[in-house]
Structures are given as structure tokens and as C-alpha cells.
What we know:
Layout: E1 9-13, H1 25-36, E2 40-43, H2 65-82, E3 86-89, H3 96-103, H4 114-117, E4 124-127, E5 129-132, E6 135-138, H5 148-156, E7 160-162, E8 170-175, E9 180-185, E10 210-215, E11 218-223
Parallel strand pairs: 1-2, 2-3, 3-4, 6-7, 7-9
Antiparallel strand pairs: 1-10, 5-6, 8-9, 10-11
The protein binds fe (ii) ion (2 copies).
The site of one fe (ii) ion (FE2) has 8 residues, from loops.
Amino acid sequence: MQLKWNKDRILVIPDLQAPFHHKDSLDFLEEVAGAIDATKVVSIGDEVDQHALSSYSHDPDGHSAGREYELASKFMQKLYARFPSAVACYSNHSDRIFRKAFNAGIPRAYLRSIKEFMGAPDGWEWRSEWRIHDIVFTHGDSASGVQPHRLLAQSNMRSTVIGHHHSSPGVAYLANEQSCIFGMNVGCLIDPTQYAFHYTKYNRHKPVLGCGVIVEGSPSFIPMKINSRGRWSRQ
Ligand SMILES: [Fe+2]
Ligand SMILES: [Fe+2]
């Protein structure tokens, strides 16, 4: 018997929220991409945090918006060097500057695109969602609950991959008489000790670090296991 899977092996980069990303995020992503011999890369959004531009209160002792942008941009250049082409999703954090401008009454024509302000190479492109082999890739901020990936797969009526929900990664399958689909949440690769995440300090459910892969049609969440020093244990 020959299975008729598509032959793509997709790496899904989760929320990085630079410059508050985990120190080992790039090495981990590169290792996973190499292990599956990735043919496509999807970035699920929240590549940068823009904490200083948040409409919620932000740390007065943190970086200025300009300094944060500078640090995030440096990280993004390293990400592009390792992954020169990817499709990426619009997300609540990358949209912060547009919401800020909207609230201040500044027309869109005056603003740079995400691709421009992210300093991205030609190989990167952002959209609100992508469809690859009939799987939807979208940031996931339109759903909530314990299994938002399951909910979004259900409402899209097709397999769906999301990020945004840092503490509930995983894969859920749904089926009816005609088809079987999945929802996957790819977690995050943030550094939870950074001041930008102090607002989550007392949350019962902590961020789960890792990324997503879809190998010839089969989705998996790959956890990045951490040692007692908070570094990737490489196990
Ligand atoms: Fe996020
Ligand atoms: Fe998000």
C-alpha cells in the first residue's frame, strides 16, 4: 500500500516575542528543522513583542520602544539568516503599531508594512492566514479556552495550526463520517523570566516552550525541554 500524503515537511515557528525570546530558540529551531529536513517554514506570528507599544500598562523600567525595536530587529536578522524564506501570520503583537496609529488617527498610508518594519528579506511574506495542503495556518487570537486549536479547526472545518496561546500546545483530532482533521497549537519560545511576561507570573498554567512540525501530513508539537538553569537540555 502506498499512502497518498503530501511530501512536505513543515516547520512551524511559534511565538518568539523578540527581544524577549528564549536564548536557545534559534538553535532549537535549527535542530528541529534539520531533524525533519524541513521543506517549508511557517511563522505563526508574534515574532516581536513590542511591549513598550502595548495599550496595557508596560514596565516603566523596561526598554524604550526604540531600544526594544533595535534589539528585536537584531534578533530577526539572525532568524532570517537561519530561515531565509517563510510565510508568516499577522498577529496581535506585530499589529500593535497599527492599533496605536489607528487610535491616534494616523492613516495607514503613512505607515510601513510589517515586512518593511521587520526588515525582512524577499523570502518572507505576511498574511492573516495561509493555506498549505488544505491546512489553515493563522495566529489564533480569535479563539480562547483550553483547546483553542480544536475550536478553530472545528469552526474552519479543516485542519488548523495556531500559536498565541503559550500554555496550551498540543494536537487534537476531530472526525465525522466523511473526514478527519486536526488542530495544533505550537506553543512559544519566549523567555518567561523577562519583564515583558511579569503579568503572567501568577498564572497557574505556565508557558510551554517548543515548536510545531507537520511531516508528510502528520502534526506534532515538539517540546523544548529546559534544565534547572532555564536552558535547553537538548534531550
Ligand atoms: Fe504570543
Ligand atoms: Fe499573540
